[in-house]
Amino acid sequence: MLIKNIEQRIKINKIISISTIAFAVFIVIAGFFFAYRMIEDSRKSIYILDNGVPVLAKQTDVLLNRPVEYKAQIELFHRLFFTLAPDDTYIKDNIQKSLYLIDDSGKKEYTNLKEKGFYNQIIASSSMVSIHTDSIALNMEQKKFSFFGKQMITRKSSVITRMLITEGFFEDIIRSPNNPHGVILKNWRIINNEELSNQNKNSY
């Protein structure tokens, strides 16, 4: 009788020990799982800075916003590169900001326009140059873009409107203060920049 009681207690102790170990393993696995979920959720969060204080803007999948950021980067580059005033310092500042967003193809085009005297003409004629974005097409598989817009050159006596079609590629890079979208444009080139109209201003 005594032996049976001892055997029963040993069995009960084994069951309790195994159950305790199994419960502990379950707790550890559950802890890892919830920690992983928290890390994944934090990666889906987007924060904005309000006077240096990070504020949660919206909890979403960051990858879903990438096409929007690609288009924003493409539009920003073109706006900086083609928005010009009859001021050498203003032109250089805008070009410098735009070159942070693109590879050396941007510098080559800038050098090409500079050698042709384009910027000197802007300053000499006191012209204002701006662009209007019509659309931006993305090919996500090839990571290629096409920009469609118009370039307006406003002079004292006329307004020249030119077609502006460019294309290139885009690539993800690390975000930085000079490149907040974390996108670099590559192998960019101007496809069409032909004149559409030349309207004289009314003089009084």
Automatic annotation (TrEMBL):
It comes from the Bacteria. The chain crosses the membrane at residues 12-36. This is Bacteroides conjugative transposon TraK protein. Keywords: Membrane, Transmembrane, Transmembrane helix. The lineage of its organism: Bacteria, Pseudomonadati, Bacteroidota, Flavobacteriia, Flavobacteriales. InterPro entries: Conjug_transposon_TraK.
